[in-house]
Amino acid sequence: MDKIDEIEEELILIRITGEDRPGLTASLMTILARYDVTVLDIGQADIHSTLSLGILIRVDEENSGRVMKDMLFKASELGVIIRFFPITKDEYENWVSMQGKNRYILTLLGRKLSARQIEAVTHVIAEQGLNIDSIRRLSGRISIADPKKNVRACIEFSVRGTPKDRAAMQAELLKLSSQMEMDCSFQLDNMYRRMRRLICFDMDSTLIQTEVIDELAMRAGVGDKVKEITERAMRGEIDFKESFTERVALLKGLDSSVMRDIAEHLPITEGVDRLMYVLKRYGYKIAILSGGFTYFGEYLQKKYGIDYVYANELEIDEEGKLTGRYVGEIVDGRRKAELLKLIAQVEKVDIAQTIAVGDGANDLPMLSEAGLGIAFHAKPRVVANAKQSINTIGLDGVLYFLGFKDSYLDEKGRC
Question: Is the pLDDT of residue 49 over 90?
């Protein structure tokens, strides 16, 4: 094809706004097709039945006047407003050159989102020299007349360019998140982001709202002792293996039958049912990599159809009592990261296509190893070291970081 400069043609940006209706875009494209117009770019958004449509065309100079006249008549007939803007060849080439720049996705979510929160995030984007290409709402609309419990709001920004200082940008987004009751995720928009295939979860305080070892300790009458050790370990103040051995030893003599009752009354984290349904529906492989216990992981495995469970095995004597010891290798932070890589190899999944979600210091190795590591309602040290975090809504917030829209899901998926 000849270069644009060598052809007597015009570049025209057409902007159409007004009330949307079925067939509107088709009617306008019929006119462009009649004059064999080349469409260089097109984009459309619809907000509460209000249309905003942009079309960048290349048209012969002899037909440009006819195209604009016919489009104006059709716009009048359809009751919409149409505007024409000439685009220079230099402006167009500058736009083309932008295609080679990095593209990122910034996801903003919370129970609700206000202008203040959006203002703060967009200022960060601007200060980093990034340009917003598009904005879309991933969450469903919230009813004002009948507000639902556990509402959630999510907006996704597609931005282009290279951050001046990505580390400083991440730090600023983290600061804003803690100050303004929202969560921000900043990801490179590449093919791996659209093709995540394996997701690995911590169990205690992630899939369930408790630490099972604390539940067992309460039944054994050593709750306060074990809870204090657990909290120190999760904050990263003491070695996980050492703390784990100490806590298990305190359970000696507990009847193993109590595990069934605890499992049947596990407090499932908000959003887990919805998240698991969607992940299974879309073909994700799901694993539990837990510093907790296999018995409870397998209970959740049966409940949700989870593919892999790796956790710690409690030793039980012939009388059905816990011995205060464990069987096999401890699943600590290092082991979690190893297992994530192993499962990825078995499933023939690139590590960049993996996701890890956890809350404790022993989850940091797998969060760092995964293509997308998400700290969920995590301890301050974990949030500070994880690239992504969710602190304002339930575990189904992970779906927004993967780009899912509520409208993709059926009624069961919205539960």
Answer: no
Q: How many CA atoms lie within 13 A of 205 on its CB side?
A: 20
The conformation of residue 411, written as its DSSP 8-state character, comes to T
In the three-class reduction of DSSP (H, G, I as helix; E, B as strand; rest coil), residue 75 is classed as helix
Measuring CA to CA, which residue among 385, 326, 335, 394 is closest to residue 360?
385
Task: Cite the DSSP H helix spans in 86-211.
Answer: 89-97, 115-127, 166-180
Q: Which of 20, 204, 332, 396 is catalytic?
A: 204
Whether the per-residue pLDDT at 409 is higher than 50: the answer is: yes
Q: What is the value of pTM for the model shown?
A: 0.84
Q: How confident is the model at residue 404 (pLDDT cuts 50, 70, 90)?
A: very high
Could you tell me where in the chain the CATH 3.40.50.1000 domains are found? Answer: 198-414
As a whole number, the mean pLDDT across the chain is: 91
Is 413 a residue whose pLDDT tops 80?
Answer: no
Are 267 and 281 in contact by the 8 Å Cβ rule? The answer is no
The third-level CATH classification (topology) of the domain covering 198-414 is Rossmann fold (3.40.50)
CA distance 296 to 330: 16
Which DSSP string do the residues of 348-371 spell out, in sequence order?
T--GGGEEEEE-SGGGHHHHHHSS
CA 402 from centre of chain: 4
> Which of these is catalytic: 5, 90, 133, 202?
202
211 or 48: which carries more pLDDT confidence?
211
Annotated catalytic, 239?
Answer: no
Architecture of domain 101-189: 2-Layer Sandwich (3.30)
Q: What is the pLDDT at residue 233?
A: 76
Q: In whole angstroms, give the CA distance from residue 238 to residue 332.
A: 13
Q: What sign does the dihedral 158-163-167-173 (CA atoms) show?
A: negative
The CATH code belonging to domain 4-97 is: 3.30.70.260
CA 356 to chain CA centroid, nearest Å:
11
Distance (Å, whole) CA 371 – CA 194: 12
CATH 3.30.70.260, the chain: domain bounds:
4-97, 101-189
Cβ–Cβ contacts within 10 Å for residue 96, how many? 11
Residue with the two structure tokens 């009617």: 27
Active-site residue, 204 included: yes
Q: In whole angstroms, give the CA distance from residue 238 to residue 335.
A: 17
